[in-house]
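Hello K.,

You asked for the raw outputs rather than the summary table, so here they are, unedited. I folded two proteins back to back in the same session to keep the settings identical. This is the first:
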Amino acid sequence: MILLDPDLDPDSRPRSRAVAPDAVWGRTSLPRAERLPTPRALARFLAQAQAAVRLRGEVNVLLTTDRAIRRLNRRFRGKDKPTDVLSFPATDFVQDQKKNQERGDLAISVETARKQAAEQGHALTCELQVLMLHGLLHLAGYDHESDDGRMARREHQLRARLGLPLGLIERAVRSPGKATADPSTPLRVAQDDKPRGKRTESGGDRKTPTRSGRP
């Protein structure tokens, strides 16, 4: 499910709270490449990316502001700065049970995503998709901070399959000075491309984010 922070403005400019949230996708003076995609378009990509990652269960994606994601980053990771994406896995999950069980949440800063899209020379839609894929891999159990490059290889495989440009980890390796992910931390893709980690009984609690895209 795609969720929109009511404080998020498509132009990143002050706007009356009287404007309905749905108007965010219909009213903007930004160039097309910088505009937010529709929730329906993002939901389609989310389903496609989940299938590619082989991640079953419901995932919520919150599109939010730098200010809000900074609060989350400070609270859960002890880092008092904005980031691009945070992943909040559900603490418990049962495989092969109800299809709609929650698997976790992603929070993405649209403001940071827009800046990174401009740096990379592609549209905001593309950057949001890159961030969603990165976050989904974390929800699937991958962690580029503690493996031997497996998440990097898996992200490379899937972003190519999904028609996306460089992933966050690849960017960090190629341009350390402008890294959005820690260059020394890719993740898990053994021969079967499956992450390690155990799943227990189901539940909806969240734990500390496994990782953000930026260090």
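The second followed immediately with the same parameters:
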Amino acid sequence: MNPRDQLPPIMPVEPAPETHHGIMARFRNYFLTGLVVAGPIAITFYLTWWFVTWVDGLVRPFVPIAYRPETYLPFGLPGSGLIVAVVALTLLGFLTANLIGRTLVDLGESLLGRLLRDHLGEFLPRPVIPHVSGIRLTHQCKPPYAPSYALRGAL
């Protein structure tokens, strides 16, 4: 006997009776749909306006009065501080990515490394390599960044 034969027969589903919505129900549905669509848009505009005015407030003290748009226009120009910040960050990235920037970064890293090695090295214990059977140290390998060395072992 097949297990399908033991199942009760499937009854046809009756369609739900048509309900007529009143004008207030339609009004409520349209209002909630409009709220769901307009809410995220309004929040996005508010957060964007808040961010632009916040960056303007941070950058404004660093811009001389002669270069501010309010000096030449009868109203304030929102976003001018944001433009100055974007240009300054782009210029900083350009300088850092080029030879001058790399030289300054290398100089700073070597100064920091020398400071850590000379002053903090006196207080930190030297690493002790425990004897582990089956591993013998063959040579030192130099990673891409100096002056650190790593010990390389061979089995």
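The first helix runs from residue 23 to 59.

Happy to rerun anything if the numbers look odd on your end.

Regards,
P.
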